[in-house]
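[09:14] KT: can someone run the structure on this one? pasting the chain below
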Amino acid sequence: MEPLILDGKRVASEVKENLKTRVNELKGKGITPCLATVLVGDDPSSATYVKMKGNACAKIGMESRRIHLSRETTTHELLEVIQGLNQDTSVHGILLQHPVPRHIDERAAFEAISIEKDVDGVTSLGFGQNSLGFGEYPSCTPAAIMSIIDYYDVTLEGKHAVVVGRSPILGKPVSMMLLNRNATVTTCHSYTESLPDILSTADIVVAAVGKPNFIQGDWLKEGAVVLDAGYNKGNVGDIDYEACYEKASAITPVPGGVGPVTISMLLKQTVDSAEKYGAVLQHS
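[09:31] RB: done, structure tokens below
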């Protein structure tokens, strides 16, 4: 039996159509949702990502403000720019494109972002709130994974979910989100022993390891739901797609799976922030 293709383009399209309505309603109240993107240096991939995010904002009527700083920018100078954006009431979300140049303290820069505008879910406060189950703006890729799970009514309660990867903006937060939804979660990483044996017990697999074609089909339990959050050179995910396709009951493609939904979550959380700001204005 063919697995269900978890179509991220379809999910993202529906999210964005809903956002267009919400953006128009905010504009009627004199508020245009605005995402500020901060790019430090001249990394071509980062510049492409920032441009993509700007285009996505424009398509739903949001404003995108791009701040491009030179590679020589110091941590102190970057923090000053972020503080200025925190205080700018016309900005509702702040995204610091990473990686930043090595001489910059990236964690200090992330922590400088106001929790009210941390729509990319990069602060430790945001991570803590999300882990405890009341965070408003989780990291966008984990939010995308949960959005796909909800769209396709994938049952989490009581299921064994194995997350392969433990990065602070993907593996760790998605593990917490799955746990908060009553899944039993195992988080694996590069030091995990007997990974194929662990994956063979998983009802749900989240691949977030950053290695192309890493997870093999014969490691999977028959009927597993596979969500591939990897994106590597050559449009290849973290799973061996053809082999995993044979074992899965549902699977995300790469490209066209988690990626498109990630960008739509960034837009959604910026609109959420703008609506929250509008509600505060209304009651002040």
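[09:33] KT: thanks! Residues 62 and 234 are 31 Å apart (CA to CA).
[09:34] RB: yep, looked fine to me
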